Inverse folding.
């Protein structure tokens, strides 16, 4: 298990237990199907968004806007079994997705989904390019 420690500002002291709990991420499974239909089991960091976990992989999540909900290059199709476990979709996200030719009822912007332990094992497919 890998732990990622985030910076604690300019403090020189070690983090308190509360800071540790808030800023430590853990690995959990993301089942990713790339645009060629190849499935990959990826160890993702909880505490980050799905987009942040996916963009460094070479599966096609560009995340051009960095999570500002302006580009839709983080578009994924989520396995329908997982949809009700996700945070509710904001109207802005739905508006952006509905403008895409690749929109499906299970479309989500991966930048709008915090990856948590409760989502370990989530299955998604990188949406086709526009
Ligand atoms: S990264 Fe641009 S909309 Fe998600």
């Amino acid at each position: 298990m890998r732990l990622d420690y985030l910076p604690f500002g300019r403090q020189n002291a070690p983090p308190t237990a509360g800071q540790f709990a808030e800023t430590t991420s853990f690995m959990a499974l993301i089942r990713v199907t790339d645009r060629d239909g190849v499935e990959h089991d990826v160890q993702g960091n909880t505490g980050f968004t799905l987009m942040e976990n996916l963009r460094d992989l070479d599966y096609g999540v560009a995340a051009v806007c960095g999570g500002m909900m302006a580009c839709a290059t983080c578009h994924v199709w989520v396995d329908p079994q997982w949809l009700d476990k996700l945070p509710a979709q904001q109207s802005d996200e739905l508006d952006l997705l509905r403008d895409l030719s690749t929109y499906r009822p299970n479309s989500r912007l991966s930048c709008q989904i915090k990856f948590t332990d409760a989502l370990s094992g989530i299955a998604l497919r990188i949406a086709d390019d526009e």
